[in-house]
């Protein structure tokens, strides 16, 4: 009779709740406040009947209803059952009753519900059904391990979207633009529209948007639950470590930052937008396994911004270093911070040099000279050469050396001419034009003050330059846009049999022109430098571990080494094995005579 009344109410009929409450209170009173009679004579049967009732309902709904409709009904049923407890069931029944209903409506059909073809979890994520996803979380988070399949689908969905972005970027790079990617580009935020032509700008901007979108899902739909943070992290780690058109994500992120931070970058953003974007880039860096590769590419680009006055804002440079330091530790940014400090000190040093020249008229270098003194350990390694400087430049170097020796006698100056720039006047037939060139280019042009015609070998001998450097500078002066020199034969490439002459007929509508050298792909050099640093890092890690443990098996040593280094990069097992062998030959370690997989530290 009582169970029939409850089922009638579930079907929407009106019942006398007060009467039902009085009857059920009698069970408690009969037990003198104990719940034994209530539980044995009523609750057990009520729970079985409830399970049976909702089992019948669920079997129909799962076939007839979409996932959102089913979840709406399930949520309403659970609310009504709690309401039922508050009106006439004993409060001790609430947890048991709710668990029964959850089991029949959600646990039994969870897989079918979440995997529904046209309305399941994947479809809700695809169609941005935020309200339905929030309801899904509310329903399943109270069920033991109920969120795990949702988090797994969430991870798969993000991985698929991110991998699609990588593929679309590959297609664009290979001139295989799909219609879908063209549509995607039209949705880029207005501030990024000008970046459409730049691969890294478009790709990284889209990855940032993807991260923003699904981080909002984690916070809003999934109540900041750690399981969904983990799913988001693992998904981004999958596609953020893929190469895009031959470029690693570490390089793309560094190039993206460079475009934002340099003068004349492709993105024109407000200060607030730049700070926000840099913050998001640093968050993305957390998913990159080769953080050391990012650091080296970033340092290389930072050096160009600082040395060639390309940095748009010193505050933004310091801001991102602060964020990187918080994310990756002080060691990660120590060299970069040193570079920024170096530039400040270099400006002070230049002021002192100018004061020195003012007080010592005999030390006049003859031309305006600016020297930037850098600390070798902070900056990327640069190719240095024994360039034979023209006499005009030799005096400059000697004057600065004399000045520098008045400040310190314990430091040796190494001149990196490849980074220098010169402003020289070219006196052509029509007009004089100021040429902004590199030191190598300037040295080559000044040779033509004394000679009308020079062969390739003449220039090479007089400048003492390597062939690759000489070809680049002669290419820029005789084969590119500005033909300051004429070349015989008149071809597009420079060969050792060529002859060069000053071109007096050259002219340009501008009175000042910059003549760039052909760009050099520094990627190979950066990767080689990082690989070398990694060998040192692996050696140091192995020695630290063995110094502490004294004796250790091969497998455990490898695993501990990977764990120590994983903050900066993911070391290759073969590379670790190779470094162990090298340390054995250098008498840091020895193999156990009886067990070749056991190593001992040699103090």
From TrEMBL:
InterPro entries: Cullin, Cullin-like_AB, Cullin_CS, Cullin_homology, Cullin_homology_sf, Cullin_N, Cullin_neddylation_domain, Cullin_repeat-like_dom_sf. It holds the Pfam family Cullin_AB. One of its GO terms (cellular component) is cullin-RING ubiquitin ligase complex. Signal peptide: none annotated. SMART domains: CULLIN, Cullin_Nedd8. One of its GO terms (biological process) is jasmonic acid mediated signaling pathway. Keywords: Isopeptide bond, Ubl conjugation, Ubl conjugation pathway. Residues 248-478 form the Cullin family profile domain. Belongs to the cullin family. This is Cullin family profile domain-containing protein. The lineage of its organism: Eukaryota, Viridiplantae, Streptophyta, Embryophyta, Tracheophyta.
């Amino acid at each position: 009779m009582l169970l029939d009344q409850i089922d009638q109410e579930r079907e929407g009929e009106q019942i006398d709740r007060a009467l039902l409450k009085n009857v059920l209170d009698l069970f408690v009173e009969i037990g003198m406040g104990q719940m034994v009679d209530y539980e044995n004579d009523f609750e057990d049967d009520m729970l079985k009947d409830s399970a049976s009732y909702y089992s019948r309902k669920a079997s129909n709904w799962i076939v007839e209803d979409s996932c959102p409709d089913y979840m709406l009904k399930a949520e309403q049923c659970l609310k009504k059952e709690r309401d039922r407890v508050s009106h006439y069931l004993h409060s001790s029944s609430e947890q048991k009753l709710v668990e029964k209903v959850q089991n029949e409506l959600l646990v039994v059909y969870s897989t079918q519900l979440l995997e529904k073809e046209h309305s399941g979890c994947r479809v809700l994520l695809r169609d941005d059904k935020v309200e339905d996803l929030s309801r899904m979380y509310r329903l399943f988070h109270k069920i033991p391990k109920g969120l795990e399949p949702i988090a797994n689908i969430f991870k798969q969905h993000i991985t698929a979207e991110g991998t699609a972005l990588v593929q679309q970027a590959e297609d664009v790079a290979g001139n295989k633009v799909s219609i879908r990617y063209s549509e995607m580009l039209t949705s880029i935020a207005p501030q990024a529209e000008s970046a459409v032509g730049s691969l890294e700008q478009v790709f990284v901007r889209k990855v940032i948007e993807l991260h923003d979108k699904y981080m909002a899902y984690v916070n809003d739909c999934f109540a900041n639950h750690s399981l969904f943070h983990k799913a988001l992290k693992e998904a981004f780690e999958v596609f953020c470590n893929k190469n895009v058109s031959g470029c690693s994500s570490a390089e793309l992120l560094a190039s993206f930052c460079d475009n934002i931070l340099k003068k004349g970058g492709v993105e024109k953003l407000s200060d607030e937008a730049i700070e926000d974007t840099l913050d998001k880039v640093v968050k993305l860096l957390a998913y990159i396994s080769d953080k050391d590769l990012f650091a080296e590419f970033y340092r290389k680009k930072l050096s160009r911004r600082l040395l060639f006055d390309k940095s748009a804002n010193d505050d933004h440079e310091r801001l991102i270093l602060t964020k990187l330091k918080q994310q990756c530790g002080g060691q990660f940014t120590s060299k970069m911070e040193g570079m920024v400090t170096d530039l400040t000190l270099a400006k002070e040093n230049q002021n002192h040099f100018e004061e020195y020249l003012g007080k010592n008229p005999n030390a006049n270098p003859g031309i305006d000279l600016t020297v930037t003194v850098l600390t070798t350990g902070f900056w990327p390694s640069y190719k240095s050469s024994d360039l034979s400087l023209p006499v005009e430049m030799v005096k400059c170097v000697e004057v600065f050396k004399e000045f520098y020796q008045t400040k310190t006698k314990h430091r040796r100056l190494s001149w990196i001419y490849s980074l220098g720039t010169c402003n020289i006047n070219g006196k052509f037939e029509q007009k004089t034009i100021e040429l902004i060139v590199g030191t190598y280019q300037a040295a080559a042009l000044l040779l033509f003050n004394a000679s009308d015609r020079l062969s390739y070998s003449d220039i090479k001998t007089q400048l003492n330059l390597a062939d690759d450097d000489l070809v680049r500078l002669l290419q820029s002066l005789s084969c590119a846009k500005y033909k300051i020199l004429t070349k015989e034969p008149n071809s597009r490439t420079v060969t050792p049999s060529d002859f060069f002459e000053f071109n007096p007929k050259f002219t340009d509508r501008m009175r000042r022109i910059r003549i760039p050298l052909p760009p050099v792909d520094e990627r190979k050099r950066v990767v080689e430098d990082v690989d070398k640093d990694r060998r040192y890092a692996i050696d140091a890690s192995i020695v630290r571990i063995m110094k502490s443990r004294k004796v250790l098996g091969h497998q455990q040593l490898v695993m501990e080494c990977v764990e120590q280094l994983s903050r900066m990069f993911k070391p290759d097992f073969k590379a670790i094995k190779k470094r162990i062998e090298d340390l054995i030959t250098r008498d840091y370690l020895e193999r156990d005579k009886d067990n070749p997989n056991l190593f001992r530290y040699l103090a």
